[in-house]
Amino acid sequence: MVKRAKQQLERWMEKRCDIYGWEEEQGEDGVVEQKEVLFEAQVPCRISYAGLGEGKKGTDFLSPKGTVVLFTAAEVELPLGAVVRIDQKQYRQAGESRTYPTHRETVLVPFGEERV
pTM of the prediction? Predict the structure, then answer.
């Protein structure tokens, strides 16, 4: 039954995302720096926006504010602090993922925005 539910969810994931993480790299001068590394490419996913749109002063459009949730297969690993790129938009992982038998849910925030 889990296998069938998992297959149904995977058909629902119509987007693709790239998952980046950070690795430490020591330079020639001995300084350790963080380097962004691609962990997984073209991962099937779905993104969900929860919450109401909130208008910005001086604009005529509503921008989504609230929670962004990324749905992927349960086997997909997201390292803490991962950067996720979907449709030319970039997000940062906001906390630990929740893993279920059929899928994984990860809360994201737009890259550069702090979680309050």
Answer: 0.74
Triad 16, 21, 22: Cα angle to 5°: 160
H or E segment to which residue 24 belongs: strand 15-26
Helix (H) or strand (E) holding 106: strand 104-110
Distance CA 22, CA 9 (A): 29
Q: Which DSSP helix (H) or strand (E) runs through 99?
A: strand 98-99
- Please provide residue 113's backbone torsions phi and psi, each rounded to the nearest 5 degrees: -95, 140
pLDDT in tens, 11-70: 778 899 999 998 888 888 888 888 889 999 999 999 988 764 555 554 444 455 568 899
Domains of the chain, each with CATH number or no CATH: 2-110 (2.40.10.370)
Distance separating alpha carbons of residues 63 and 25, to the nearest angstrom: 38
Residue with tokens 């938009």: 89
Separation of alpha carbons 85 and 17, rounded Å: 6
